[in-house]
Iron complex transport system substrate-binding protein
Amino acid sequence: MILRLSALIAVAFLLLAALPARAEVAYPLTVKDAFGREVIIAAEPKAVLLGSGFNLVALSLIHPDPVSILAGWASDMKGDNPEIYDRFKDRFPAIDDVPIIGDGVTVSFEAALSLKADLAILANWQADTDLGRQAIDYLERSGVPVVVVDFNSDALNNTADNMRLLGTVLNREEQANAFADFHEERVKRIRDRVAGHKEPGPTVLMDAFPNPEKCCYAYGTGGLGAFIAITGSRNIAESLPAQGGIVSSEFIVAADPDVYIATASPGGTYSTFSVGPGVAPEEARETLARAVSGPFLKNLKAVKEERVHGLWNFFNAVPLNILAAEAFAHWLRPEIFADIDPDATLAEINARFAAVPFDGAYWISLKAK
């Protein structure tokens, strides 16, 4: 038995020795960021500024200790979704000591420069503002290269390329390419299947942060609204600007959608509905039921037929958006997507990519399985 075990160990070492080493990125390098800007990266970044804290999620999918490379970051993720922050803090206590450089909307130039960073990463929605352009100019004149990433404006098409961009910049190409391939394969699966079923899907209302005291912000065709279109379904608010807008209860009642989808965040921030990291399914389902119990929503066809669903609003800020796409596919076209299971996809992401596992009810249906 000892000889057999020794032989197995020897074989294992030989197999490990035969594996290729992690491909190294050669610096200095020039990359094009999400805005098409050419950015020169002199050396592997070791001290990174994050203009949006939500981009820590992206880093955590390609780096085993993303906190270790932070020089400073914005507090928006910590403020909006403290449950995710707590998960990172449990795994990487040093996150509590990372200096704050802004709140995701404003940036302290003085704080940023005092940290002696070698790279800054901004989200597209930050960079495309007067303050964002000032921050880019200020940092780059001070010798800090700035890379803009975009997991927001056209998530289903942009996510894979932006993950590859981060992988190249941070010398994590192997991991980033693996996640990008994973994302692309699953998006393609949805698109290919819809292409083979030309019949239109149901009509859908996606209601952001439902609140019985006021009505209602409907997603248009942009952001998470694009996840309706990929399934071949029809957004009742498609005539609105791409980002969506305020609609009246009369508009919703007249459209009488086949399916109602609410978005929100943990703890019922801005809404009576609570969903997302750290939220138990029972809480998510109970608060979703409360959200559609008002006098006009409860009479909608979607509510009467129990085609009511909800999901975490911040899927439009992180590369985990493939989970939302799969949830939409399963909810809206169950006849062609019965085999798609976002729970299984999340489990695979946690096993293969996540430095910090993602837990909680990120999506929920009013009708339990």
